[in-house]
UniProtKB/TrEMBL annotation, chain A:
Source organism of this protein record: Knipowitschia caucasica (Caucasian dwarf goby)
Keyword vocabulary terms for this entry: Ion channel, Ion transport, Membrane, Transmembrane, Transmembrane helix, Transport
Name of the protein in question: Calcium homeostasis modulator 1
Pfam family, one: Ca_hom_mod
Mode of membrane association: Multi-pass membrane protein
Molecular function GO terms recorded: monoatomic cation channel activity
Transmembrane feature ranges: 21-37, 49-69, 182-202
Automatic annotation (TrEMBL), chain B:
GO MF assignments: monoatomic cation channel activity
UniProt record similarity statement: Belongs to the CALHM family.
Membrane topology designation: Multi-pass membrane protein
Coiled-coil parts of chain: none
GO biological process: ATP export
Any one cellular-component term (Gene Ontology): plasma membrane
Keyword line: Ion channel, Ion transport, Membrane, Transmembrane, Transmembrane helix, Transport
Record-given protein name: Calcium homeostasis modulator 3
Membrane-crossing segments per the record: 21-37, 49-70, 106-130, 181-200
Compartments where located: Membrane
Phylogenetic classification of the source organism: Eukaryota, Metazoa, Chordata, Craniata, Vertebrata
InterPro entries referenced in this protein's UniProt entry, alphabetically: CALHM (IPR029569)
Amino acid sequence: MDKFRMMFQFLQSNQESFMNGICGIMALASAQMYSVFEFSCPCMPEYNYAYSMGLLFVPPVWFFLLGFVMNNNVSVLAEEWRRPTGSRHKDPTILRYMFCSITQRSLIAPAVWLSVTLMHGKSFLCAFSTSLDIDRLGNFSVFSGISELERVKLLARIPCEDEVYFEQHKEIRMVATRYMKCISQTCGWMLLLMMTFTAFLIRGIRPCFTQAAFLKTKYWSHYIDIERKMFDETCKEHAKSFAKVCIHQYFESISGEMRSIHHNRTYGSEDGENGRELGDEEKLMGIRAQEDMNKVLWNWHTSKPALALRKDKVDLQSNGTLKGYANGEANVLLNGHTSDVEKKEWAVYYSKV
Amino acid sequence: MERLKLVLQYFQSNSESISNGICIILALVSVKLYTSFDFNCPCLPQYNRLYSLGVMLVPPIILFFLGMLVNRHTGVMMDEWLRPEGQRSKNPAVVKFLFSAMLQRAMLAPMVWILVTLLDGKILICAFSVSVDPHLFSGFPNNTGLDVIKIMAMVPCKDNIFGHSSFRKAVTRYVRCYSQAVGWSILLFFIVLGSLARLIKPFFDDHARFLQTRYWSNYLDVEQKMFDETCVLHARDFARKCVVQFFEEMREDSVPMLDRPYFSVSTKDDWDCEDEDRLHGVTRQEQMDKLLDKWFCSKPQLDVRRIANRPRLCPGCSKRSLSSEV
């Protein structure tokens, strides 16, 4: 249990390793599903091929789509693709990068299924037993002097082990199995070689062409993901503070008394972890009404803000920290130190006006 | 559990041991792959050799490419090799060092596969059973109508024509003996080669230069990791401030803005003196794009005197630094 928890914690440490973890789990699930699944060839000329090829190709498609479903980045990609431009330009290279990385991860589980199926060889035997040139594999008397239709039917029965249909069945089955398995495994190894070589080329050759642009797209696609998370977190905090203030207001309106909301705050070392919690009023960031909040949520999609922090805001904050500490005077900035409690109250009171 | 954590911590302590760890894991994967692979000799004269040599040689190639793919140093090496010179001169010795280290690590898993193959013997039996002279052994099945080559090709398979005769087992043992001898010889050869190389290298190599090359190649790896981490932290901060700014802008739209103080929302872990430093003054998309462009096209000089001598101002040490300013 402890091992699982440690692994889980490690995987959740960042988004990429979480997605890699999901990818690995799906690959294992794919291999496990194959070993649990009981392949049973229909042994009829009309259905052999369809059944085997279906089993070879349909689960990979399913795993591929499942990979898309389980990947969080798909909704991020869709949102980024569909949003109106607003004050932030859309960069198609970022969309392409995100799509490529999602696709690469989703391709692993199908590749595992295909490899395992081909290495096992049963599906090839079932599919191609009717096209076997049995005379090349050995002299089997049961195939001499029969009509073409009978021959095909006999060949189609080869993959099934249940009954002995003809006296040389076991021997023919062994020879045919070995032959088809050999071909199937060759195909499997070739597939693995091709995939590894392609991945190696992409990873090795890409830096020759687009390294600078690659750094940019990697950064901004990660940024989009993180920004979405930050927005969700901020909304949650806002909702909490909104609710608290709303309830407080309601109680006040019933009781008819005005009580300062400041007394509910936690100061410095008395409560809270490190005394830097802001009050609920501040967490509202001035958004106090339903219409305002609706506007925030609406504009977040229809008109995302430009990627430019206000310089005055950044300067003010850094200056404020330095000044507030060095001079000990009242400052525009709230910084949660216990010595600045009175300044905080003044600043908040000001905002209410 | 504790032991596993210690082992993991040791391997993660520096980039070289991470690469070594990955290399060893790949070698173990190679062994596991061999044991779980169901080797199936076709027992047909035209296909035996092709199939066997294919199984002996194609997986090593796959493992080699895989070894180069999962190695971080591949990216570092390509980056250092392809970047324009910019303000930092290029050192070809570092690229060569990284390349040879990467190659050596990538060769381990393929070698393990080939050795395991030879020591096990199945594959060579399948490949070379047709070349064995059947008259060396007794019990050759004469009564079947097949020719010699076809019969010898069937030796690797537990077929009916041999029944319980000891002929098959004898041939198998014979070929396996050769196969294991070849395997052990190759292993011995590589170990001797490796030891000789280790012993003789100091006589031919400039150790001082080697120390420099090793340092700078490790530095490049660490620098790239640090850059990625800094970018991640920067993105996080940028996003947080962008979101807060967005909320505040909505407020300003509805209420006329007087000379109001700016409020900032900070969560518990946010308000250190280093908080502003995480943005490092990069607050716009164009600035960030330029930064990322320049990181590749014109890497900075290896000279940190400017920032090392900058006075630090933070609550913990500000008293010290303020007094030093006076």
